[in-house]
């Protein structure tokens, strides 16, 4: 789909990239390939940003992203450097893609076979099978046009949207309205609406505040497939890092940045241990608000604290990493547990009074169903993720209460009782997102994809206050998710080349 345009040579230019999430890794690869001398400074002891790993008692957990979606984006990314993902990691398509337990006792598998999925939809609502075909046809059109003309192109200014080409490409796209409105045009049954909207949690939004344009995620989900990469998402990080090193990128871990000063051609980047780097340009893949508010002096900031306080942040999460004795049937590799009415849970995240959910919707991942290297023999690797509002108090008492509620809920609604079989356990929540990733309000993802925080309404790739300072990652366009962050890295590098 995407062909990398020729990029102006960066020979002789030095660049420091702050942070090694997928946005930072991608930017580093494009810049190094163009000839720049690239150094990546990573705050933590592992590369990959939120896609880090936890090793304990023979278990290996992906601590962040765990769904490998949009394989075409990964193919395009590696192809830009004359390589293929298969040179760095293998892929296995999952069947089922995922399983849903509704809390009224109903259970649904979504599978690679579209005809079977069509029958599943028809079983809930007469005509829903045909409606699914129509919905996916629209989603595929949105995906093809959206990816080529809106995602892979950095339309960061209003004038970028006001031209005849954009109007021609946008014809037929659902640019206005919410996902809830869009989905209701196709399906009446609330469970079917949930099935085609669950992926919004990966965008950090809710059906009522996410643009209908993101119906494209159903094309990703139903037709492009769900995969498991060799050694999990950490294996993808290893692959991208290996390629970056082949391109000449130099990495420093355990190197939190304390200050960024200067301008193009005369930057000084200082780490907390006192080391200094003097690049021509700087790219931040760290939390955008943290970079502006904590690493820059006031006169170098584009936005003040009020701006960041007024943003809508994607959810944080309560994560429970569990090593379990025995199996966890009937959980699938990817499992969703959903209340039949999930509006109350979304209201606890985006409503006027954020709180911990009493009847949560949540995700369970069991990579040991697919990969026997992630757990000791006769044990299961399980992690639970509950989206919660950013900024919530998450002290030990609150965590213990919610942990017990969650384990009870899993037992009640999936039939899997692990309460007496847990041999390893660790939690990760709002506080850790803030401490480990300098994440504003402890958000797990960044800025939510609301109607007012999509496309040109997201913070820019190039600082408007400091020449030579750039940004990449989930706060920028195209937004949240591993594939989007890979593309963000390309857009940032292209912007740097144009300004160079």
UniProtKB/TrEMBL annotation:
Residues 23-496 form the Amine oxidase domain. It comes from the Archaea. GO terms for molecular function: oxidoreductase activity. Keywords: Carotenoid biosynthesis, Oxidoreductase. Pathway: Carotenoid biosynthesis. It holds the Pfam family Amino_oxidase. One of its GO terms (biological process) is carotenoid biosynthetic process. InterPro entries: Amino_oxidase (IPR002937), Carotenoid/retinoid_OxRdtase (IPR014105), FAD/NAD-bd_sf (IPR036188). This is Phytoene desaturase. It comes from Haloplanus aerogenes.
């Amino acid at each position: 789909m995407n062909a990398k345009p020729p990029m102006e040579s960066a020979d002789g230019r030095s660049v420091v990239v702050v942070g090694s999430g997928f946005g930072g890794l991608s930017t580093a690869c494009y810049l190094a390939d163009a000839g720049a001398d690239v150094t990546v400074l990573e705050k933590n002891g592992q590369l990959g940003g939120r896609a880090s790993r936890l090793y304990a008692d023979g278990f290996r957990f992906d601590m962040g992203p765990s769904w490998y979606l949009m394989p075409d984006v990964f193919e395009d990314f590696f192809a830009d450097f004359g390589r293929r993902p298969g040179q760095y990691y293998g892929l296995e398509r999952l069947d089922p893609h995922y399983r849903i337990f509704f809390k009224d006792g109903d259970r649904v598998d979504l599978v690679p076979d579209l005809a079977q999925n069509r029958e599943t939809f028809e079983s809930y609502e007469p005509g829903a099978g045909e409606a699914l075909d129509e919905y996916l046809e629209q989603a595929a059109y949105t995906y093809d046009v959206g990816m080529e003309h809106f995602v892979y192109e950095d339309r960061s200014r209003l004038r970028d949207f006001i031209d005849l080409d954009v109007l021609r490409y946008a014809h037929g796209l659902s640019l206005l309205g919410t996902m809830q409105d869009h989905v209701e045009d196709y399906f009446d049954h609330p469970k079917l609406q949930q099935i085609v909207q669950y992926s919004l949690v990966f965008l950090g939004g809710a059906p009522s505040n996410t643009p209908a344009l993101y119906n494209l995620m159903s094309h990703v989900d139903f037709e492009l497939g769900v995969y498991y990469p060799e050694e999990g998402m950490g294996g993808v990080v290893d692959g991208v890092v290996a390629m970056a090193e082949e391109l000449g990128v130099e990495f420093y871990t355990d190197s939190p940045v304390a200050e960024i000063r200067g301008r193009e051609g005369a930057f000084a980047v200082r780490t907390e241990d006192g080391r200094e780097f003097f690049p021509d340009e700087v790219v931040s893949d760290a939390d955008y608000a943290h970079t502006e508010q904590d690493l820059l002096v006031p006169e170098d900031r584009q936005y003040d604290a009020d701006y960041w306080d007024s943003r809508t942040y994607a959810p944080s999460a309560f994560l429970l990493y569990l090593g379990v004795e025995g199996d966890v049937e009937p959980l699938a590799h990817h499992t969703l547990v959903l209340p039949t009415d999930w509006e109350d849970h979304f209201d606890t995240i985006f409503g006027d009074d954020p709180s911990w959910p009493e009847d949560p919707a949540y995700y369970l991942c069991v990579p040991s169903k697919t990969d026997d290297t992630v757990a000791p023999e006769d044990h299961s690797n399980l992690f639970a993720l509950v989206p919660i509002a950013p900024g919530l108090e998450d002290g030990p008492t609150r965590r213990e209460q919610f942990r017990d509620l969650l384990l009870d809920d899993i037992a009640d609604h999936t039939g899997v009782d692990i309460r007496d079989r847990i041999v390893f356990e660790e939690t990760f929540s709002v506080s850790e997102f803030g401490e480990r990733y300098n994440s504003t309000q402890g958000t797990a993802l960044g800025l939510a994809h609301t109607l007012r925080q999509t496309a040109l309404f997201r913070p820019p790739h190039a600082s408007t206050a400091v020449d030579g300072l750039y940004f990449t990652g989930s706060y920028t366009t195209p937004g949240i998710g591993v594939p989007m962050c890979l593309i963000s890295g390309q857009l940032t590098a292209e912007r740097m080349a144009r300004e160079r």
